[in-house]
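Notes from the pairing session

We agreed to fold both candidates in a single pass and log them together. This is the raw record for the first candidate, unedited. Please don't reformat it; downstream parsing expects exactly this layout.

Candidate A
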Amino acid sequence: MPTGDSTLGSDGNMAMVAGPWAKGKLHYIRRYCYIFNTGMKDKWETRTYIDLFSGPGRCIIEETGEEIDGSPLIALQCGVPFTHYFFNDVNASFMDSLRKRVSSTSSANIRYFNIDCNEVVDYLLPQLPPSSLDFCFIDPFGWEIKFNSIRKLTTRRRMDIAITFHTGEMKRVAGSAPEELDDFFDGPSWREEYKTESQKRGRQKGRVLLDIYEQRLRNIGYQAFDDNILVRTTNGLHLYYLLFASKHERGADLWHNISQKSHTGQLRLKIPKE
């Protein structure tokens, strides 16, 4: 069964089929949720977790059949919890399964949404606490999230974000990219930037795409970045970067601290930048 498909978990609810690399991604999300809350609880009384692609809360690793918690359940397991949780997925069956899993284990302050990731922002914003420290995990299959949605969600908010940035697929289509990528990069100007920069000697195309996107984030107030987590397939092909961005250097410091070891316990080597 291909990754991204669904199946039934051991509890009879829906689960998402995932590749083995999902364990690494979720490892870093778990560690950041932990350090985010323990490190900031005395400075920020209100702390929110936002998951725009929450899925059903459980993943099945395709090759092994191992069942693991997804990002919503991970966020709910923090010893020092977030004060508010916001879960969204466009798949109604996924959200129904997530509700069932959460209701049996948690009494946290949770809001659920079953809307397109871009449309949900208008519903979510009025419900966010007026003054809080936020962490938003954006984990699309491709480039469904429009940059303007991120702009709207993060304006005048202290919000750290972690984005699954699919450079592998982007590189494959960049020469004749679909219009959806213009929305992802905040307009078509990225095309000429990509063409110019990727032709420079020694520049890797994935790095060029990251730099273009990070500049867009700088334009809306983000100052500190960590893009050193590169996720590969079992054959070593580039899949995506787990891109972290914060409006404060402290956020990047926290992410740096939790990202030095992979889920296997190995120290990660920093990816050289051109």
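Candidate B (folded immediately after A)
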Amino acid sequence: MKLSLHIYNNLKRKVKFLYDKLKLFKREKTKGRKLAIKIIDIISLALYQHRLGINTKKNLYELFNLKCSYKTLSENLNRFSELSILMLTLIIKAHRSNSHLIKHSDSTDIPVCLNKNAKQHKTMSKVG
């Protein structure tokens, strides 16, 4: 749990940084009832859910002791899904620019056809 809390806090820090840089706070509603959960927390929870492979929103709700209802969490996750996608895209682009030039790949054979039929197929006949 300690590692997953570290992952959540790291995501939340990145989301807050991007939220402030993009000045998304200007798009927040100023009138009416305040949200039960801040937008930064909603986006962080959405990214956390997909980062750890949590299958359902209910599992996410049970993992965190939130002060709102499950319905509110579910509606807000759906409502701010576009912002979550935007944040995810920006985080991926930032990590891509800092990635190392040398990449590692898996050279495991992928079975496409039976070995007995491999010589008869013409897909890769001109290669090597």
